[in-house]
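Q: What structure does this chain adopt?
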Amino acid sequence: MNVIEAGVQAVNDLSKPEGAAAPPRTVADVLAQSQVEAVMDELDRDLIGLAPVKTRIRDIAALLVVDKLRLNLGLQAQTPSLHMSFTGNPGTGKTTVAMRMAEILHRLGYVRKGHVVSVTRDDLVGQYIGHTAPKTKEVLKKAMGGVLFIDEAYYLYRPENERDYGQEAIEILLQVMENQRDDLVVIVAGYKDRMDTFFKSNPGLSSRIAHHLDFPDYGQGELLDIADRMLGTMNYRFGEGAREAFDSYLQRRIPLPHFANARSVRNALDRSRLRQASRLFVDRDRELTRDDLTTLMPADILASRLFSATPAPQGR
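A:
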């Protein structure tokens, strides 16, 4: 039994008006009608690891399922606060989880549309007086009925610059987060240490965030599994010895600056595909087989400058 099904063991039978469809009476009823479990299963398939994050998402879904059953019994309550904070390094799946969270909220009826509007400071803050409010309100208008995802949200607050207009955008966000919480969910994201400082400087925002999810870095084995999955979606595969070569690449790349987890894995695979294409391009008259076109060989990976005596600063 998963955490959602364990959330409610039994719910009293509801009276059913003649000719009317019965409202959901059990957790299973809600799950069947919303098909929200399919979204969470998809999240499990799409993302390697992240067990604490996935558990928290299921807990939030359980809360919303039980909340619907309470409403069906006339147990009125204020709509639960669903604004969230996602903290972690780049490439740990924050944007993907935000998209799945929006779909869960939509299927359970907590947002009307289920779309995600992803923005940064530049989308919200103007460069002169009177410019910020219209920009912020336009973004909020687009996001209504769904999820507003603000990446690197701490850049909204720049106390060292007296002429900065980020605080104006924050104040507008705070009003909407409180007054229209039943039509918009805001997710702020960024590095954990910077987000902690941001919240300390903006207690009004911190008090409106109900759910804090920390996204851990991937381990080397998880990154290798992610590489397998990425290649599969692109109709590529590792040839003999290539997976071991990529594992060796990861061992060298992870400790270097600017490593971005799954994002860096994708970039490394793209460079390997580029080397494969160059290798195949040389022999112009040879008929290329399906295996030729879909297989990465060790040489395509070992040609990285990481394997040279003096690796590049960016670890390519």
